[in-house]
Design a protein that fits this description.
CATH topology of the largest domain: Immunoglobulin-like
Number of strands: 17
Distance between the termini: 86 Å
CATH class of the largest domain: Mainly Beta
Order of helices and strands: HEEEEEEEEEEEEEEHHHEHHEE
Strand order of the largest sheet: 4-7-2-1-10-13-12
Keywords: Membrane, Transmembrane, Transmembrane helix
InterPro entries: ArsR-like_HTH, Tscrpt_reg_TrmB_N, WH-like_DNA-bd_sf, WH_DNA-bd_sf
Pfam family, one: TrmB
Length: about 300
């Protein structure tokens, strides 16, 4: 009898990994609000033959948690500390959404968002945010959104001043009408998820208008740069140095531009960085500033970043 029990236990232990705990994270996105709250959206794909999985949350203090399957149907879940356990039957995709203030910190005027992830993370900032520091170079930049690589990441930013009366988006508050809870096994049944207010629509419109203005301005600068190149297709190094004096440049920026000039107007970004002896993130921020001033163009060529003079 005892031997049969041992066999049953061994079989159960072999089957357990097939029915619980296996999943893969398809995507992870963060939306940062001006009040420091962050909306987290995680898309998870359960493995076949699983009926539940436990996934770590990015924070312990979470609000407005919702868990739905690929068809939008709420799924039962429970929370133990910062671990979320989701129960399901035939779900092929699970979407977890929640809000938390734990991912951001403020030191003076500088905000920082910090997180760790096994997959690249898309971060969307308020449209008045200006990034001032990063732990790594973004994989993509699209408007006020960046895609950071996997790992432990910190992005620091400041919020530009807005005139009185201008609308600044903040995280939805739980004091508004709440959506129905999607948990049947929740460890905090008294909580209700926050809902988004009407201000988000205005924020989106402002973002779209801002992008259109930037695009139009970029096109104008491109045309102006083209005109300059047609008028003065080639200049001496001495004349080039005189032109640089008309800009407020750091010593590293001036050295980088002269280095590009001496090499026919373009070079690999890594090559310029090594010449200056500066970190990757410092070089990335420097070329971003120079590109905004219309002095250089940064582009990809065979999976490498190149920098070309536009002056």
């Amino acid at each position: 009898m005892r031997s049969k029990a041992v066999i049953v236990l061994a079989v159960a232990l072999m089957i357990l990994p097939l029915v619980s705990g296996q999943y893969s994270v398809e995507s992870l996105s963060l939306t940062v609000y001006s009040d420091g709250y962050v909306k987290v959206v995680e898309a998870i794909v359960p493995e076949n033959y699983t009926v539940s999985f436990s996934v770590p949350l990015l924070a312990t203090n979470v609000e407005g948690l919702t868990v739905i399957d690929e068809s939008g149907k709420p799924l039962p879940y429970e929370i133990n500390g910062s671990t979320l356990t989701v129960y399901f039957e035939n779900a092929t995709g699970v979407r977890v959404t929640y809000y938390t203030p734990d991912l951001t910190a403020k030191n003076g005027a500088i905000w920082s968002v910090h997180f760790g992830s096994t997959v690249p993370v898309k971060i969307t900032f308020p449209d008045n945010a200006v990034i001032v520091d990063l732990t790594d170079i973004p994989l993509e930049i699209n408007g006020n959104s960046i895609l950071m690589p996997a790992g432990n990441q910190t992005v620091s930013y400041v919020l530009e001043y807005r005139p009185t009366g201008a609308e600044i988006p903040t995280a939805p508050t739980s004091g508004m009408t709440a959506e129905p809870s999607n948990s049947t096994v929740s460890s905090n049944p008294g909580s209700s998820p926050p809902t988004s207010g009407g201000g988000s629509t205005n924020w989106t419109m402002l973002g779209i208008l801002g992008l259109l203005v930037l695009a139009a301005g970029g096109g104008f600068l491109y045309m102006k740069r083209g005109e300059k190149e047609d008028v003065a297709p080639g200049i001496s190094r001495e004349d080039f140095e005189k032109r640089l004096r008309g800009y407020e440049l750091t010593k590293d920026e001036e050295k980088a531009l002269l280095y590009l000039f001496d090499r026919g107007g373009k070079a690999k970004q890594a090559e310029v960085r090594e010449m200056l002896g500066i970190p990757k993130t410092t070089a990335w921020r420097m070329f971003q500033r120079l590109e905004k001033q219309g002095l250089v163009r940064v582009y990809k060529k065979k999976r490498e970043n190149w920098v070309e003079l536009r002056l």
